[in-house]
Amino acid sequence: MSHSVLVVMDPIVSIKTKKDTTFALMLEAQRRHWQVYYCQPQDLYLTKGHVFANCQQVQLQDNPDDWFSYIDAAPVEVNCGEFSAILMRKDPPFNMNYIYSTYLLELAQNQGALVVNDPASLRDCNEKLFTAWFPEHTPKTLVSANPHKLKAFAKELGDVILKPLDGMGGASIFRAKADDPNLSVIIETLTSHGQDLAMAQQFIPEITEGDKRILIVNGEVIPYTLARIPSKGETRGNLAAGGSGVPMPITEEEKAIGEAIAPELVKRGLLFVGLDVIGRYVTEINVTSPTCMRELENEYHINIGEKLFAALEQQLMA
User: Fold this and answer.
1) Is pTM beyond 0.90 here?
2) Can you tell me the mean pLDDT for 72-79?
3) Which of 31, 140, 141, 263 is found 20 to 30 A from 14 (Cα to Cα)?
4) DSSP 8-state code for residue 81
5) How far apart are the C-alpha atoms of 136 and 117, rounded to whole Å?
6) Is position 213 annotated as part of the catalytic site?
7) Active site (annotated) includes residue 163
8) Catalytic site residue 254?
9) In Å, what is the CA distance from 196 to each residue of 94, 96, 101, 165, 170?
């Protein structure tokens, strides 16, 4: 049976194929003889009770200088319910346009398409806040818009990480100690003077060993991790913030953390997820467009995308 997938993502012309997880997933779909279509979130639209995509079918090749071509010159209008699956792979920011896209994708799901990750769970599972559902695996955390509470939390712990709830790639993440002269202004900036919620977490010294990315595919914990090691003088391991990625086998403790969280992910229709783990603590649960797949595949000669598409094909046959 022929399958088709619509990949909703950032502009395909500007991706870095060497490290782009979405591109690797598209290659796997093509390898399995799926028809691969591409669009951006703004190309989705609703009319007469149905969701359509203004999209183009693409031909892919793993060549960093020439990685895709359009099969037809002009975009086509396709009823999203007719796709076998839709991959929502738009990077944050998680703003209102993103949320509107999830409403459209949820309707497309109701009309026949298998959407990954589940649109309702994309809305419900904020990548920072979702950690609170697993308190036994998270560092001491405070989420508040109240500057006095955040400052008291920092003074109590002595060393904290402060961050917004909607960022990515290490943007606007601060480390502050209790006597930091900039603590007040950091809190004022993150909370917009007490108007916006922000997160404060206990600083975890094991960040020097890396912020580990653990991938979980359809409930299966991948047995390798990518340790994002902060550059000298940094506390952020994010690759976008200058960290270096070091593939390594997963530890037993990390595997146990992943296996403890995995059942809830599957229950919520979150089939492709990346946990951020520092030491023995989960600091974020990435559900929008988890990355680091290509680095692990290239290092260990494994095919993680195959696991996702095998799961999709099994669900489509059910």
Assistant:
1) yes
2) 95
3) 31
4) G
5) 25
6) yes
7) yes
8) no
9) 15, 15, 23, 9, 18
236 is catalytic: yes
Pick the CATH number of 4-124 from 3.40.190.10, 1.10.10.10, 3.90.700.10, 3.40.50.20: 3.40.50.20
User: Is 254 a residue whose pLDDT tops 70?
Assistant: yes
Q: What SS3 state is found at 204?
A: coil
Catalytic pick from 276, 294, 297, 307? 276
Q: Which residues pair with 144 in a beta bridge?
A: 198
Q: Which two tokens stand for residue 108?
A: 């497309």
Q: Which among 196, 140, 139, 142 is positioned nearest to 166, based on CA atoms?
A: 196
As a CATH number, domain 140-203 is: 3.30.1490.20
Polymer length in residues for the chain? 318
Instruction: Flag the least confident range among 14-28, 184-198, 223-237.
Output: 223-237
Please tell me the distance from the alpha carbon of residue 205 to that of residue 159, in angstroms, as a whole number: 10
Structure tokens at 5: 């997938």
294 has catalytic annotation: no
